[in-house]
Amino acid sequence: MRDSQSIFIQIAESLKDKILSAEYNVDERIPSVRDIAMDVEVNPNTVMRAFEQLQRDELIYNKRGMGYFVAPGAPEKIIEERKERLKKSLLPALFKEMALLKISIDEIVDAYKNYPKEAQ
């Protein structure tokens, strides 16, 4: 997990990763607050904060007495959110570094083409 982020945000991002990788599918139940708390060894209240954030973002929903489920459209919302984050924060830093190091876009394209498929 990323040390610079709050633990509940790290948990929420991990759950988003699992939604994007189809480990958790739309309308499928996700593990309980208690189960996740035990897995990542944190207080259940911390996990609950992550669930509340995901619910506010309409990525999960609660069925009373049954647990939390992946909301319809969640994967698309996560992709859109992350694309925007990439464009606003990661790409400017990359472009600045490319300019400083005089790296061409062709070098980046080649590196991407040679990037191992299993790492993607």
UniProtKB/TrEMBL annotation:
It comes from the Bacteria. Residues 5-73 form the HTH gntR-type domain. Gene3D superfamilies: 1.10.287.100, Winged helix-like DNA-binding domain superfamily/Winged helix DNA-binding domain. CDD domains: WHTH_GntR. Pfam families: GntR (PF00392). Keywords: DNA-binding, Transcription, Transcription regulation. This is GntR family transcriptional regulator. It comes from Porphyromonas miyakawae. The lineage of its organism: Bacteria, Pseudomonadati, Bacteroidota, Bacteroidia, Bacteroidales.
